[in-house]
Amino acid sequence: MLKNRIIIIFLCFLLFIFSFISVNAENKKLESQLPNDLVETYKKFIIDMKTGVAGSIDSYCLPQAISFTYNKRKNRPGIGQDINTHWAVNGFKGKIISIRKKEKGCFLIRTATTAMWFINTKHMGWRLYEYLDKPIK
Fold it and tell me: What Cα–Cα distance (Å) separates residue 135 from each residue in 22, 25, 82, 86?
C-alpha cells in the first residue's frame, strides 16, 4: 500500500514537471516571435506590474498614452482601459498566450487577463501605447 502511494506521488511529480516544461516551452515559442529587446522590456514590465508602483509601470508607457487608477475597481475589477494598480498586483497575469504583429514596429501581446500594444520608438525603445484589462474566460 505504501509502495503504491509512493509510486502515485512520484508519477504526479513527473506529470507536474513535464507540464511545467511544456508551459515554459510554449511561452518561449511565443516569445521567439518577438524582437529580443521587446522580450526583455516585457519581462521587466511584468516585474514592475507585480509591484503596483505606478511610477515604475509608467516608465514603460508612451507619455500620456495610458491612464492609471489606484483603488480597486468596484463592479468588474478585471475590466478597464486603464492600468489599475490594485489589479496589477492582484489580478494581472503576465504569461503570454498570443502575439499579433501589427504595423511595422508594433505588437499586440495578449495574456489571460490583458491585451497590451507595444510600439518601438526611436529614442525610448519599446513603449506601451494601448492597454486593456479583459480576462479571457
Answer: 23, 23, 14, 15
107's CB contacts (< 8 A; 6+ apart) are 34, 38, 99, 100, 101, 117, 118
Interatomic CA distance for residues 16 and 18, integer angstroms: 6
**In Å, how far are 26, 29, 110, 115 from 132, measured between CA atoms?**
23, 24, 10, 5
Report pTM. Answer: 0.76
Query: From CA 69, how far away is CA 131, in angstroms rounded?
Result: 13
pLDDT on residue 7: 63
Interatomic CA distance for residues 123 and 133, integer angstroms: 28
Task: For the chain of 137 residues, list the mean pLDDT of each consecutive stretch of 10.
Answer: 64 47 52 88 94 93 94 88 93 93 89 96 95 88
What is the Cα–Cα distance from 28 to 54, expressed in whole angstroms? 28
Closest listed residue to residue 72, CA positions, set 60, 61, 82: 82
State how far the Cα of 77 lies from the Cα of 97, in Å rounded to an integer.
Answer: 21
Quote the radius of gyration of the chain (alpha carbons, Å). 18
